[in-house]
């Protein structure tokens, strides 16, 4: 065989052997790579376990609907007054119960009955004249845990619970949703503004009971059945619109005196007039704090209103969020005129921030057409 042929055979064998060796090396390299932990696209079994544990090791502490109802019922009461029966609920640890004004109207003392059928005596320490809201203080309920008040407004579609004693059936719960917002009307002597419209059935005896967020257990409003229902509709007063007034009543009545006692603490006519004048000024600032500028403007005398339009009056308080009375006193200035002096603290918005400013204010108060009015006033900022 020629040397040329032998050279060809040897070269081919080398090439074939080299190829086989390469295939074997690639195969072995692949096996070695697969023996190493999987990369990128596939997580290890240990990593999967850790992820699963991370998602299940912190179960939600959210209460069930049943738990929310049970907890809420303990803080809801039935109120019996000389004029009938209604509901109410604890809102602070002073034993103060929020209810409707029409539930306790004409009464200084009422009977309050809790979930366990215990009866206690309560005193009306604050009551609205045009706003259908009142506060009853029950000393025996001091330090009892109150309901949590929501700081947010409800929205259409929010699920709600209405608690109370409809037709005397105590501890009743009805369910529904917020079906409308900003409903307003007047049913003498009360003015209802920006109400929640609800689908939960309510009736006589529900008045004053809480409207509760079914998801959080927080109070959204105060149910009011004085409003006639048509087609299964009910209405509730937003708690955010009256909370400042309610808190003011509680702060002013730390001694537990009745609302009537606060307004008229003397049998002498002159003292009663002074007390009425002070109450008028207090109501004026309460309305401003509630952004009820119409009611506040209505307390001004004809001379003041003729020199200051409602639009200008409202504009003057646009940047004031809340006003509290620190001191108040009164004296007779003339035969038909009283002078009320006070120190107030006002939360005012300036440059996007709220600051508290204090003022000395003085008002002249008198009667016009048989109604007591604020005739004139002036104020000076305390530096």
TrEMBL record:
Q: Give the residue spans that cross the bilayer.
A: 5-26
Note the Pfam families from the entry.
Answer: Trypsin_2 (PF13365)
Entry's SUPFAM superfamilies? Trypsin-like serine proteases (SSF50494)
Query: What keywords are assigned to this protein?
Result: Hydrolase, Membrane, Protease, Serine protease, Transmembrane, Transmembrane helix
Biological process (GO) annotations held by this record are: proteolysis
Record-linked Gene3D superfamilies: 2.40.10.120
> Where are the residues of the annotated region Disordered?
48-67
Superkingdom? Bacteria
Q: Hydrolase as a keyword?
A: yes
Polar residues: bias regions? 52-61
Enumerate the GO terms in the molecular function aspect: serine-type endopeptidase activity
* Name of this chain's protein: Trypsin-like peptidase
- Give the species this sequence originates from: Paenibacillus barcinonensis
Q: What is the lineage of its organism?
A: Bacteria, Bacillati, Bacillota, Bacilli, Bacillales
């Amino acid at each position: 065989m020629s040397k040329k042929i032998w050279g060809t055979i040897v070269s081919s064998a080398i090439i074939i052997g080299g190829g086989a060796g390469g295939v074997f090396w690639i195969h072995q390299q692949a096996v070695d790579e697969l023996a190493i932990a999987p990369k990128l696209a596939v997580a290890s079994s240990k990593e999967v376990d850790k992820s699963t544990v991370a998602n299940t090791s912190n179960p939600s502490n959210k209460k069930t609907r049943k738990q929310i109802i049970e907890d809420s019922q303990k803080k809801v009461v039935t109120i019996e007054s000389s004029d009938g029966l209604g509901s109410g609920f604890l809102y602070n640890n002073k034993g103060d119960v929020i209810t409707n004004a029409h539930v306790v109207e004409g009464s200084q003392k009422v009977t309050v009955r809790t979930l366990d059928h215990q009866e206690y005596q309560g005193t009306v320490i604050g009551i609205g004249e045009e706003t259908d809201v009142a506060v009853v203080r029950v000393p025996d309920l001091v330090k009892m845990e109150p309901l949590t008040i929501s700081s947010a407004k409800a929205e259409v579609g929010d699920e709600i619970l209405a608690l109370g004693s409809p037709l005397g059936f105590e501890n009743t719960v009805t369910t529904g949703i917020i079906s409308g917002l900003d409903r307003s009307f007047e049913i003498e002597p009360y003015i209802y503004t920006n109400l929640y419209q609800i689908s939960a059935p309510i009736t006589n005896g529900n008045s004053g009971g809480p409207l509760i967020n079914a998801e959080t257990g927080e109070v959204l409003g105060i149910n009011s059945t004085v409003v006639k229902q048509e087609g299964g509709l009910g209405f509730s007063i937003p708690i955010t619109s009256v909370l400042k007034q309610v808190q003011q009543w509680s702060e002013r009545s730390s001694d537990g005196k009745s609302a009537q006692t606060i307004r008229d603490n003397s049998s002498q006519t002159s003292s009663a007039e002074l007390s009425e004048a002070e109450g008028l000024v207090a109501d004026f600032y309460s309305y401003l704090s509630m952004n009820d500028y119409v009611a506040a403007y209505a307390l001004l005398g004809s001379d003041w209103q003729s020199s200051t339009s409602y639009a200008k009056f409202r504009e003057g308080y646009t940047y004031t969020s809340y006003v509290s009375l620190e001191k108040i006193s009164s004296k007779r200035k003339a035969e038909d005129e009283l002078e009320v002096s006070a120190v107030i603290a006002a939360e005012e918005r300036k440059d996007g921030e709220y600051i508290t400013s204090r003022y000395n204010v003085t008002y002249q108060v008198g009667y016009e057409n048989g109604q007591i009015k604020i005739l004139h006033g002036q104020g000076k900022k305390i530096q």
